Structure formats: C-alpha cells, structure tokens
TrEMBL record:
Signal peptide range in chain numbering: 1-21
Statement: the UniProt record of this protein carries the keyword Transport: yes
Organism classification: Bacteria, Pseudomonadati, Pseudomonadota, Alphaproteobacteria, Rhodobacterales
Name this protein carries in UniProt: Branched-chain amino acid ABC transporter substrate-binding protein
Domain (Leucine-binding protein) ranges: 26-377
CDD domains membership: PBP1_SBP-like (cd06329)
Length: 413
C-alpha cells in the first residue's frame, strides 16, 4: 500500500499515471487533513491510523471484492477549507471515490457542500464523504446529505454524556466554557449551555468565550479570567495545539478543578500534561483502550505501536470506518459505484473491534455507538505518547443518543 502526501496537481497527475501503468487494482481513499502547520501532529497520526487499519483489517485479509486492496492517498489541507476544496478536486480528478476527513468541522462543512453539489452535477462520477471526526451537529441535521456519513458521535451526543458526569459532582457550582472560534467550538458551547440548563439549572455558567483557532500563542489572559471567575470546572472542545496550550496554561495559573474535554489525549497532549493531568483531565470519546475490551483489540494496539513507535491509537473510530466501508463494498458488489455502497452503509450494524455494537442510523447517517467518559491517569495498560499516562474508561453510555431526534430531511437517489 502506497501513501503519498499530495502537494499539488503535478504530483497528483504523476501518481495517477504511475498507478495506471502498474495496473493496480486498488480502492483509493483520499485522506484530506492537516499534514503541516499547528495541527500537523494530529493529522499525521490520523493518517498513520488509516494506513495501518487499511493494511491490517482489509489488505492482509484478502482485500475486498476479488482481491482489490485499499490504498490511502494523503492530501495536506493545511486545516484550510479553501485548500481542502482544491485537494478534493485533485482527488476527484484522480478518480478517487472515497473522501476521509475529520479535523475541523469548518472543513467538513465546506467538503460536504462541495461533494453534494459535485454529485448532483456529475452522476457518473460520484464520491462519498467518510467523516471520522468532525462533530458539528448540523452535519447530520440541517446540512445532512446522502453522501455524508459520520463515524464519530456528534458534539451534542458527547455533551449529553459529559454533562451527565458533571451534574453528579456536588462540588461543581460554577462552570467556565471556552473553545475555538468556529462551528465546532460554537456547537460545544451551545450544547453545554443547553444541557446544563436542563439538567442542573442551579449550576452557574461564569464564562462562555471563544478564541481564534490555531493562532493563540499564550493562553495566560484566558486562564487568568477562568481563575478569577472562581469556576469549579472548565468545559472545552479544544483539540491539538490549542488543547495543550489552554490546558497547561490553566493549570499553571492555579486552576485545580476538573477540565472536561473532547480531545485531551494523545498527539503530544498526554505527554505534555503528564502527572499534572491526573485528577484534572476528563475526556468524552468512543473506543476503549483501557481497560482493553478484548484480546483482538490489545493485539491490534501492540501491532500498531510496533510499526509506529511514536504513534497513538487516539482515534479508534478509524478502524470502524475501514471495516464498515469494506463490508459495504462487498455487500454492494462494487467499489466504483458509490450509490449502492452508500445504501449498504446506511442502516448497517457492525461489531466494533473496540467492543460494543455500531449502527449507522439510516435517517441521518450518524453512527450510533457506545460513548465513554475517561480520565487521564497512569493506571493504564496502553499509554499515549510513550509517556506512561493514558486515558481509562470510568463510565460508559451504551448506544448513546440512539433515539435522539434529527432535523435531517435527506434526499436519496
């Protein structure tokens, strides 16, 4: 399996010509995420997880259909919606039918609109969008479309689970909400306000602000406001460098309460916090590494670490994307026509490598799965960042939000 970072049209055409000359039977998946800039670490680690899942879970098992192999083709979008659309067109021009993206809901919103428009105009050249991590609820509500599938729990589903944990802590009377200033950060803040208001109106929200994404070098002014507010807990959807910067600054400025997060693990975050994160960091996520749910999961983690010693299996849902796509292609009997593949994915049930059942909800293409509350600790079997620390499941919400309403009104071909 070849993996190449796509930097422009010339490189794309060269690769396309090489693949044609080799006569390779491959199912190509375009990975469009940041491979440079402040979030390069997150994107690169995600790329490695896709590479490994494709090789271990599909190619080594004989591939799909009559032995077609999965190939991950990487495109650096520099976390820019505009650059993402350019790379999307390069991928389509290469004949790639499957687009995987996850970092930034702003990017995901741009991609899903572009893909929907492209598929309407080009019925013989359609593509599917495999969203593995962009969790703006709008993507499976008002902005839903037939070509988009989300494999992560959306921001509302996660906040529902997170606030269940918050309201059981009698020591929390004041909460400060802070996040990145784009669609996802706004969705997290709105969900926090709504669920806290419904479940514990006595909890006071003493701060609710957004900061520029990927541009803040010193979070001290924000941290001082959090400490001055006398908040008992912090809620943030920050990820990547922004999670490290905010979290470390908050702790260094004297905050001692719990920090409830979506993405405070791996990609350098776990190592950066180390012992300081114990008793402070809480995380809501899917996928269970600690304790390992089964021997197969443990073996998979060990094999990944053997190939990528500095990598982290921080996005367990990537294995779900690969396995469910392979199953859908086999059920459809084709990888070239994405319409029957999409129909096979919609409503699909699947047993996750990480334990528990998965169900791709047919009406909005939102994956329903177990969601876990985890804590940063050294009491783990599998650590992150080779740090001796990781995240351990302390509570599980089974098939979270399976009956939650959706405003999706999907048009199907």
């Amino acid at each position: 399996m070849r993996t190449t970072t796509m930097l422009g049209l010339t490189t794309a055409l060269t690769l396309a010509a090489s693949a044609f000359a080799a006569g390779a039977d491959t199912v190509k998946i375009a990975f469009i995420d940041p491979l440079s800039g402040p979030f390069a670490g997150t994107g690169t680690n995600g790329l490695h997880q896709y590479e490994f899942a494709a090789e271990e879970l599909v190619n080594k098992q004989g591939g799909v259909l009559d032995g077609d192999m999965f190939e991950i083709v990487a495109f650096d979008n520099k976390i820019s919606p505009k650059e993402s659309l350019i790379q999307l067109q390069v991928a389509i021009d290469q004949g790639i039918r499957y687009i995987a993206q996850g970092n930034s809901s702003g990017v995901a919103n741009a991609l899903t609109e572009a893909i929907n428009k492209h598929n309407r105009r080009n019925p013989d050249d359609r593509v599917l969008f495999l969203n593995y991590s962009a969790v703006d609820p709008a993507l499976t509500n008002d902005k839903c479309n037939f070509w988009h599938f989300r494999f992560d729990a959306n921001a509302d589903i996660k906040m529902d689970a997170l606030t269940d944990s918050i309201v059981t802590n009698d020591e929390i009377e004041k909460v400060y909400i802070i996040g990145q200033d784009y669609s996802f950060g706004k969705a997290v803040a709105a969900a926090a306000v709504r669920y806290l208001g419904e479940k514990a109106p006595e909890i006071e929200i003493v701060g609710n602000e957004l900061h520029p994404i990927g541009k803040v070098k010193d979070f001290t002014p924000y941290s001082r406001k959090i400490v001055a507010s006398e908040a008992d807990a912090v809620i943030t959807g920050n990820w990547g460098a922004d999670m490290v910067g905010l979290g470390k600054s908050v702790l260094e400025n004297g905050f001692t309460g719990p920090i409830y997060t979506y993405y405070a693990a791996a990609d350098g975050i776990t190592a950066a916090f180390g012992d300081a994160g114990v008793g402070s960091l809480r995380l809501v996520a899917e996928g269970q590494l600690n304790p390992p749910p089964n021997d197969r999961a443990s073996e998979y983690i060990q094999a990944f670490k053997a190939k990528y010693p500095d990598g982290n299996l921080s996005q367990a849902r990537i294995t779900n994307v690969i396995e469910m796509l392979a199953k859908a292609i086999n059920e459809a009997g084709t990888a070239d026509d994405v319409v029957p593949v999409a129909y096979a994915l919609a409503g699909m049930e699947h047993e996750s490598l990480w334990g528990g059942n998965l169900m791709m909800r047919e009406e909005d293409h939102q994956l329903i799965q177990n969601v876990h509350i985890m804590e940063h600790t050294s009491d783990v079997v599998h650590d992150h960042d080779n740090s001796g620390f990781g995240v351990k499941v302390v509570k599980t919400v089974e098939m979270a939000a399976a009956d939650s309403p959706t405003s999706c009104k999907m048009r199907r071909p």
